[in-house]
Design a protein that fits this description.
Layout: H1 7-12, E1 16-18, H2 27-39, H3 54-57, H4 62-74, H5 87-98, E2 101-105, H6 111-121, E3 128-132, H7 139-145, E4 150-153, H8 156-164, E5 168-172, E6 184-186, H9 189-196
Helix pairs in contact: 2-4
The chain binds magnesium ion (MG).
Length: 198
């Protein structure tokens, strides 16, 4: 069963927020490109990542995976971190309607995300705010303190955790979250635009 949500009121009340990696940014494409091109991993593509715990779905040494994760988070790479298709346009539209948008990431620092939003989507500090929690489990507390009721997230484990904390997750479909759940899910940003009614 899929939860039915009163979408319009979320916009009016600014009661929604977004995860960053895997929702706004196509981080897994960057991750796998670094793996292929700099670590010589073959057949290393986002579709192969069927679990957020990479050690469960990839036959790659943990140390190598951690080195790639470190590269991605440090932003020291020769690739581009691309937005998910449609994300920029729809986020701009939402910001125009509802005011500044909130992004809550489990990354350890907000600066790299703020810079990316400014450089890639032309969203400066007047149109968005980024909070970096450093852990998945700290997201619920941040959202609660900001009065957010809905959170768009790609990590299924976090969705279950948010739900328990009274936040309604909207699962952004990705190859690594294809397991049974009862949350509202969206397949990309045009689907998300429909969800918000913009
Ligand atoms: Mg994510």
């Amino acid at each position: 069963m899929v939860v039915s949500l009163n979408k319009k009121s979320y916009i009016a009340n600014q009661s929604f927020a977004f995860d960053f990696d895997g929702v706004v940014a196509d981080t897994m494409s960057l991750f796998t490109a670094i793996g292929r091109e700099e670590f010589g991993l073959t057949d290393f593509y986002p579709e192969k990542i069927t679990d957020y715990d990479l050690t469960r779905c990839l036959d790659v040494e943990l140390d190598t995976l951690m080195q790639i994760v470190t590269r991605v988070v440090s932003t020291k790479y020769n690739h581009r971190l691309e937005p998910m298709p449609g994300a920029g346009e729809i986020l701009q539209k939402l910001a125009q309607i509802s005011g500044p948008l909130l992004f809550v990431t489990a990354r350890p620092d907000a600066e790299s995300v703020e810079d990316w939003l400014k450089d890639t989507l032309d969203m400066g500090k007047d149109s968005c705010e980024v909070i970096a929690t450093g852990s998945f489990d700290a997201k619920a507390g941040v959202l609660q303190s900001r009065g957010k009721k809905v959170f768009v997230e790609d990590r299924l484990e976090t969705c279950f955790y948010l739900k328990e904390a009274g936040i309604e997750p909207v699962l952004f479909v990705q190859p690594w979250n294809r397991r049974p759940h009862s949350f509202h899910e969206v397949r990309g940003w045009s689907d998300l635009a429909d969800f918000f009614g913009v």
